[in-house]
Write a structure and sequence with these properties.
This protein has 187 residues and is mainly alpha-helical. The chain is built from eight helices and no strands. Helix content is 81%, strand content 0%.
Length: 187
């Protein structure tokens, strides 16, 4: 994919429209009043952690692509960074599609390889989140007196995270993958 000023200009126009849209929504909902109460230290810390997690995930994804194709690691990373705007879609499916399309277009890497790498990376991400969530929930339950309704809510959230991890990782074994496919076809 080549750089062009026309893409840059379109990107800036889109960014300005997006900022204007968010400003209007903020004014109509009075969200800006809540944003003024923001703890900037925690905001900066969370933004850094978010960016670091995205980069870490992209590095893992690029490593998986690199292991099964002749494209360089930095080219994979470049494709991954180019597709980040697709992350605005639910479960970041748009980013996966953009990465797959760019890999196919630029390096002739099949959709199955790029989607497989994305599924494994996303599954491992959910698995790590699930492990951290288990530790946090156990520590919360042990160290504080939490109402049972909140523990139930935390447990439900943990179940969803574990289900997502399984949904992404189980298809690595073909018989589980076909069973999951059959289940969704049945619905």
């Amino acid at each position: 994919m080549k750089f062009s000023f026309s893409h840059l200009k379109k990107g800036f126009v889109f960014l300005i429209v997006l900022i204007a849209l968010f400003a209007l929504i903020s004014l109509f909902t009075k969200a800006h009043l809540e944003l003024l109460k923001l703890n900037y230290y925690f905001f900066a810390l969370s933004a850094i952690a978010f960016i670091a997690s995205i980069l870490l995930w992209l590095i893992g994804w690029a490593y998986l692509i690199k292991r099964h194709s002749k494209v360089s690691f930095f080219s994979c990373l470049h494709v991954g960074l180019n597709a980040l705007y697709g992350s605005l879609t639910p479960v970041q499916i748009g980013a996966e599609v953009l990465r797959s399309l760019q890999l196919k277009d630029s390096f002739k890497i099949s959709f199955s390889k790029s989607v497989s790498a994305s599924m494994v990376a996303k599954g491992i991400k959910f698995l790590v989140i699930a492990i951290i969530a288990v530790i946090v929930i156990i520590l919360l339950v042990i160290t504080t007196k939490i109402p049972s309704l909140i523990v139930l809510g935390l447990g439900t959230g943990l179940f969803v995270i574990l289900l997502a991890a399984l949904l992404f990782l189980l298809p690595l074994k073909s018989n589980y993958g076909f069973a999951i496919t059959d289940f969704f076809v049945f619905l």
